[in-house]
Write a structure and sequence with these properties.
Layout lengths: L1 H21 L34 H9 L10
């Protein structure tokens, strides 16, 4: 019984440590040096995961419009 309790406690502590290592303090994919908050700056340099393809002007406009509900007016 004592072994089961010790194994359960060890599993719980391991799981809590795993959860702590997975949480981003911002809650979103921010790049290095970005301010803490709920929104990141626009552009590929502010992203945690860099785009796999070339960043276009349309990509920039769409990124700048988030989280606004209206798209940019220059389409």
């Amino acid at each position: 019984m004592l072994r089961m309790l010790a194994l359960g406690a060890l599993g719980y502590l391991g799981y809590k440590q795993y959860q702590k290592s997975q949480v981003d303090p911002n809650g979103v994919a921010f790049g290095e040096g970005q301010p803490v908050g709920s929104h990141r700056n626009a552009g590929p340099n502010a992203m945690g995961d860099k785009p796999q393809r070339k960043w276009t002007k349309t990509d920039e406009h769409v990124d700048e419009s988030f989280p606004a509900s209206d798209p940019p007016g220059n389409y």
